[in-house]
Design a protein that fits this description.
The structure holds two protein chains of two kinds.
Chain A (H helix, E strand, L loop, with lengths): L8 H4 L4 E2 L6 E2 L20 H4 L10 H15 L9 H21 L2 H11 L17 H20 L4 H37 L4 H33 L1
Antiparallel strand pairs in A: 1-2
Helix pairs in contact in A: 3-4, 5-8, 6-7, 7-8
Chain B lengths: L2 E7 L3 E7 L6 E3 L9 E2 L1 E4 L5 E3 L1 H9 L4 E3 L13 H6 L13 E4 L2 E4 H20 L3 E8 L5 H13 L3 E7 H13 L3 E8 L4 E10 L4 E11 L4 H20 L8 H16 L5 E7 L5 E7 H26 L8 E5 L6 H11 L12 H15 L4 E4 L6 E4 L5 E5 L7 E7 L8 E8 L9 E9 L10 E7 L5 E7 L4 E3 L4 E2 L5 H43 L8 H19 L3 H14 L1 H23 L1
Parallel strand pairs in B: 1-10, 10-11, 12-17, 14-18
Antiparallel strand pairs in B: 1-2, 2-3, 2-4, 5-6, 5-7, 8-9, 12-13, 13-14, 15-16, 19-20, 19-22, 21-24, 22-23, 23-27, 24-25, 25-26
The chains are: A mainly alpha, B alpha+beta.
């Protein structure tokens, strides 16, 4: 059986453990190099390490997909139906981690969110609820239009004009969203350069903080767009 | 270990299939009535005997109060869920039911998994008769859009039927597997699966890799309460209304009469798949005859809204997969309802390509299940299925809002970790409520389970318990918790919101073993009776033979006495007594048989000699 290196042991400092089956040394790999048995997940290893990737934000989708298929082939529980319960559980643990990691890393935004969470910069699922200052005016107008639309609906009034205004606003916010995504991609490239060329810690920290801020802005705008969509659809 | 099989446990019909080792192709097994389709109907006779399949279907007309069809609609559901269905389906729900529905059949009540287990056991017996060896493991298919409780109920049914359920496979995915094997095609495939009671749409990507073929489901959607049944009900509504208006006859929706009417309407539906018009005739006893011509056009208009309901899930699945209709390379039709011309036309128009229906839409799911069963039996060699969870998994947070932790259409197995802590000082338990669904509020989603995390009293926020939610390859949730401070595994007792607890299943299994004993006794009685009848007839014939005069009067009396004894035993149900009496009559007639045998030999011998002369 070919051995797949899963963890970038150097970057993530994954401890050397011994194989549960043959006691050979294992450093986070999916399978033991000596006996080929599936190994438990090391604590704290990242999704990046799972795919043997450095913690960088530019990932080639086709090669990630290829890796995903190759690892699915080896780790999927279908391969372990007749194995011991212990091995079945290891397969379940590893293959669910594989799917979780692929789901996260294939989406550029989810990838950034995950990196920030993994590095402790961002708390999972938290977004600031205040409007970003540069958007305040637009948000005010939008909320006003939304209120008017609801009132007009309740009173049975003319909603066509209001709907038009909302659609225009939605279009604007959609464009804002595209700008935000471009900004995030730019920061991602800066991050990757810092990783590649050994950028100092303070540069990296600043980049992470900026990415976090952009993510918050993005979440806020997305909520607005979703809110308008719901109102227009309903 | 016995054989492995693939089973399609359907709303209307169920099938069982296996992979033929010689040809490498999956095959459905024929039942005793010459069809691969076993009607998913169960009937319980007055003496407690359970009848399944074709003979049970006949009982729908003669003892509807003891017979159930479409039980799949009740799997994994609570009483509150099925109120709408009760208006249409003749289910007799036990008034004591709450989150596990119990259906009354005669004077006994059964849960949906128990009734499904009877269907599975029937199919298992078909396969055992075919292989002449035991069958103990199976892959069972479920609608892709089944939730956790519905899947768990299906797994429970398998266990109750004495089958180890190796895997639950989504029906459209199984169909794609059978189809892909058949066509050797690659690319994006849409499987439109419109069955008796459920509708599913699955979008797959078929990929060739160095290792083999991967069938990756990209998105799935559906409606677990939309199917051919709804078309039957629409026809039934029409006929009932017209009969009420013209003849003033009102049907009891659970009576025999409506079952007869339903049957003739289903026949009309089938005819309209090929004919342009059909005539329904239904005698109303003294009131005359309801005669109704239905044209294809009228039928299409009647069912158009039902078929339109399938398109919303199709659009959602495409949106989730980020694909346009025309990007699908192939469209496959599965399920009996896809025989309806309007369904084919609607699907073909939407995807702008002629849908495939080369494989029998009734059999294709079972065939795919057999392929997957073989993969699990012999190991992943040439094919791998990557399926998804159809519904988002979430936990209830403050204010009854859901926090989604595993999004729908995530490849399974999938997992999520959540950290829980205490909110107030000296809090000793944290309540966790797990749900499935796409809505924002807990009350609008499907409750899966509740459990409590126990923690020693202490300041608020000190406890740190990590809970791992894992959806396994069957689409069923597993929960494990770990106390991060002590790094000890935390025991979680998950109380399923719907469905059976392990204890209940254990009890049912014990009962089913008793049942199995009863079944055994039943068979013994039948066999002993048949044998006794043969012996009695032979004895009478022997006594009528002139050569029987050779035996003594005492012997004759003994034979007559043993005949009376055997006949008395046959009137009862004690097969052991019947066997004793059979042995007795055999002993009593031994000399008689010998005499007749000798006589027969002599005649034969004499005949020979005469010829020789």
């Amino acid at each position: 059986m070919s051995v797949i290196r899963s963890q970038d042991a150097q970057t993530e400092g994954i401890p050397v453990t011994s194989c549960w089956n043959c006691r050979a040394a294992v450093t986070g790999a999916h399978f033991c190099a000596a006996c080929g048995k599936v190994q438990p997940l090391p604590a704290g290893a990242s999704y990046f390490a799972f795919f043997g990737l450095p913690q960088k934000l530019t990932i080639e989708p086709a090669s990630l997909e290829g890796q995903f298929h190759m690892l699915s082939w080896k780790l999927h529980p279908d391969n372990f139906v007749r194995a011991s319960e212990f091995e079945r559980n290891l397969s379940l643990e590893r293959s669910s981690q594989l799917n979780d990691a692929y789901r996260t890393l294939r989406e550029p935004v989810a990838r950034v969110e995950y990196l920030l969470e993994h590095l402790g910069v961002r708390k999972e699922g938290t977004t600031k609820q205040q409007a970003p200052p540069e958007l305040l005016e637009e948000v005010f107008e939008l909320n006003e239009s939304l209120d008017e639309l609801r009132e007009a609906r309740a009173a049975g009034g003319d909603v066509a004009a209001l709907q038009g205004r909302l659609e225009a606003a939605q279009q604007n916010f959609q464009e804002d969203l595209d700008d935000v995504d471009a900004e995030l991609a730019g920061l991602g490239r800066e991050w990757d350069a810092a990783v590649d060329f050994g950028g100092d810690e303070s540069t990296k920290k600043a980049l992470l903080a900026r990415m976090n801020e952009v993510l918050n802005r993005r979440a806020y705008i997305r909520n607005l767009v979703a809110g308008v969509q719901k109102e227009l659809g309903g | 270990m016995g054989r492995v099989v693939g089973i399609d446990l359907g709303t209307t019909f169920s099938l069982i299939a296996y992979l033929d080792a010689q040809t490498g192709a999956p095959k459905c097994i024929l039942g005793p009535y010459g069809s691969t389709l076993c009607p998913s109907v169960v009937s319980v006779d007055a003496d407690g005997k359970v009848i399944v399949g074709e003979p049970a279907r006949a009982k729908l007309l003669t003892q509807p109060e003891r017979t159930i069809y479409s039980v799949k609609r009740l799997m994994g559901r609570g009483v509150a869920d099925v109120q709408d269905e009760l208006k249409i389906f003749p289910f007799r729900i036990d008034p004591g039911s709450d989150n596990v529905i119990r259906v009354r059949l005669g004077d006994k009540s059964f849960t949906a998994p128990e009734i499904s287990a009877y269907i599975l056991r029937e199919l298992k017996s078909w396969a055992e008769a075919y292989f002449q060896e035991p069958v103990d493991r199976a892959v069972i298919t479920v609608p892709a859009y089944f939730n956790d409780a519905q899947r768990q109920a299906t797994k429970d049914a398998g266990r109750l039927a004495g089958l180890e359920v190796l895997r639950l496979v989504n029906e459209p995915t199984a169909a794609a597997l059978a189809y892909g094997l058949h066509k050797q095609k690659r690319g994006h495939v849409a499987v439109y699966d419109f069955g008796g009671g459920t509708f599913d749409i699955s979008l797959l990507k078929l990929i060739s890799t160095n290792e083999g073929d991967i069938y990756q489901v990209l998105a799935t959607n559906g409606d677990t309460h939309l199917g051919g049944d709804d078309i039957d009900n629409a026809l039934l509504d029409l006929a009932r209304r017209e009969i009420r208006e013209k003849f003033g006859v009102e049907f009891d929706h659970r009576g025999e009469a409506i079952q007869t009417l339903r049957k003739s309407l289903i026949r009309a539906k089938h005819e309209l798949s090929s004919a342009e018009k059909t005539i329904v005739q239904y005698p109303l006893e003294s009131k005359g005859m309801y005669i109704r011509e239905i044209t294809r056009a009228e039928f299409d208009e009647l069912i158009r809204p039902i078929i339109a309901r399938t398109m919303a899930p199709v659009k959602m699945a495409l949106a989730d997969a980020k694909l346009a209709p025309k990007e699908m390379d192939e469209v496959v039709l599965v399920g009996g309802s896809t025989r309806i011309p309007l369904v084919r036309k609607t699907v073909g128009d939407y995807f702008q390509r002629a849908p495939h229906c080369e494989l029998d839409p009734d059999e294709v799911v079972a065939l795919g299940a057999a392929v997957q069963a073989d993969i699990l039996e012999t190991g992943v060699k040439t094919m791998l299925l990557l399926d998804v969870t159809p519904l988002s998994l979430g936990i209830e947070t403050m204010g009854g809002v859901i926090a989604k932790i595993i999004p729908r259409n995530s490849t399974i197995p999938a997992s999520a970790q959540e950290l829980f802590t205490t909110g107030v000082e000296n809090q000793t338990a944290i309540d966790v409520h797990v749900l499935q669904g796409e809505r924002e509020l807990a009350k609008d989603c499907r409750s899966l389970a509740r459990f409590q995390l126990k923690t020693p009293p202490g300041p608020a926020g000190l406890a740190r318990i990590e809970v791992k939610f894992l959806i396994d390859a069957n689409g069923i949730l597993q929960v494990a918790a770990r106390d991060l401070r002590s790094s000890e595994q935390h025991t979680v007792e998950v109380q399923p919101s719907y469905g059976l607890s392990d204890t209940e299943i254990e009890r049912m299994l014990e009962e089913s073993i008793e049942f199995a004993e009863q079944d055994f006794a039943e068979r013994q009685v039948i066999e002993a009776r048949t044998e006794a009848e043969t012996i009695l007839a032979a004895t009478d014939k022997a006594l009528a033979d002139p050569r029987s005069q050779e035996i003594s009067i005492a012997e004759r009396q003994a034979i007559a006495e043993s005949e009376v004894q055997l006949r008395t035993a046959l009137a009862g149900r004690d097969y052991k007594l019947m066997r004793t009496r059979i042995d007795e009559i055999n002993a009593a007639t031994a000399h008689l048989a010998e005499v007749l045998m000798n006589g027969a030999l002599q005649t034969a011998f004499e005949g020979k000699r005469l010829d020789d002369v």
